[in-house]
Write a structure and sequence with these properties.
The protein is globular, with a radius of gyration of 15 Å. It is built from 4 helices and 5 strands. It has a 3-stranded antiparallel β-sheet with strand order 3-5-4. Strands 1-2 form a two-stranded parallel sheet. It is α+β, with helices and mostly antiparallel strands.
Length: 116
């Protein structure tokens, strides 16, 4: 199956990688910017907070659709994020409050892991 993913930001790259886990899929990733992951490379003052181990439900978020946010957080939890990036070869560290960052403290490390 050919799958087109439009937008090579964090979500687009993760979607493309997940779809590529099925060997017969052909993935086309489209991005209008000059390079993929451009915004991701500067997120969090260039450090990129990947997730928070301590936040597991929508009560911690402000949203117009709290049930939707809660469903998303339950479907893809912090442990799933950690597993995804571990499989991508990214070394991570945990800071006070359950904050998870790339070990390098550089958001570009996240982009590089996704590109690999």
């Amino acid at each position: 199956m050919t799958i087109a993913v439009i937008g090579a930001g964090a979500s687009g790259m993760m979607a493309a990688l997940t779809a590529a886990e099925t060997p017969e899929n052909k993935i086309l990733l489209f991005e209008r910017q000059a390079r993929v992951g451009r915004k991701l490379a500067v997120t969090g003052n260039g450090r990129c907070n990947l997730t928070n181990r301590d936040i597991q439900d929508a009560n911690f978020y402000f949203s117009d659709a709290p049930k939707t946010a809660d469903g998303i957080l339950k479907a893809f939890q912090a442990k799933d994020t950690l597993h995804f990036f571990e499989n991508a070869g990214l070394l991570m560290k945990e800071r006070e409050g359950g904050l998870i960052y790339p070990y390098s403290d550089q958001a570009q490390s996240v982009v590089n892991a996704l590109l690999q």
